[in-house]
Amino acid sequence: MSGDDFTVRGGAADAAIHDKQTLAERMAGELRVPLVRLIDGTGGGGSVKQLEEFGRTYVPYNPGWDQVVANLGRIPVLSLALGPVAGLGAARLVTSHVSIMVKELSQVFIAGPAVVEAGMGESVGKEELGGWRVAASAGTVDLVAGTEEEAFALTRRVLSYLPQNAWQPPPVTPSADPADRTAPELRELVPRDRRRPYDMRRALDLVFDAGSVLELGRRFAPSVITALALLDGHPVAVLASDPRVYGGGMTAQGSDKLARFVDLAETFHLPVVHLVDQPGFVIGTAAERAGTIRRGARALAAVYQSTVPWASVLVRRVFGVAGAAHRPHDRYTFRVAWPSGDWGSLPIEGGLEVAFKRLLAEAGEDAAALKAEIAERLEAVRSPFRTAEAFLVEDIIDPADTRPLLTDWVKDAYAALQPGPRSTTRP
Question: What would the pLDDT profile of 232-247 be if each residue is shown by its tens digit?
Fold first, then answer.
């Protein structure tokens, strides 16, 4: 553990302080134990007032940053913002696997309000500039606690899902939740009306060990759900979509969120469970300005580069390139579908008019009737059971049996784990 002392020059890492920070990074990395940073201050090189004292300026560098980056690939790194955090302190906060801040107590920004006003002419307060609402929505932090005590409790909880280091498998603990527990409620969870949303988080609660789901980054890119959870006491990385936000569609930010989370699973050998309801990339001018397809392709690359065991449950929609990211298709993965499964290049509702545009235009006044006739024909071949009969999906299951099937799979997944450092070290 390393900690800043805000009462000494605002927590700045000037003089020899940065040497202690570097020592903590090296000690944790070389002893292969998790590192928790308690960050409170700038963590940088101090005030410009010191230039007169030095009699010179200096070319900036980040002391010990090689150790900071190296640790991302070898040990769990958690950072807690416990006060105003700026500059190098903010960089240290986000260069971690999970970052946590405390409501109303901590703020995170590149530079504080005074520097922003002097440099940009913006007059803002600390909360407006980098309070928890801003930081959580931007994805700067992964978890927000109500108190320092809660932040420490969240830290312990996150570490309970992760191994001591990348050379070890995740810790398996006894579970009080029966592995063969079925969940009949799942049969009615997905509405028959494909346009209606539902509560995907309820599905997570019913599938995974009771009380074990810990969602990361809920306020950032909310159409993508990322969480840590347990299956019969085995830690897993959970991916899902929230159909209440953009219908669960993949955004540019959601692509970044997915890629970073898959990297975390890969680094610490967490098998991935993906509950899939993916209508595709969010489209439109805003999506194009955000570079959605480039960032989405990076997420797809992260999925394909992963080597951990992977299980996909096709809950409802699986469409387009974003839908193809539901698993790495180049290797064996466990995959099943619910009877509510619906898939293809485009949803029929959105693709029909494009595919039959000329034919509908030529129909004139009869276009509406022709459209209804075509939709009926296409609907007749939409059944997921037809797809299963062609072995284009491995099995259609009773949703109530999802947990027992996954708890059987996770034991085999853990037996196949190959611990050891990976090359992925992105924060």
Answer: 999 999 999 999 999 9
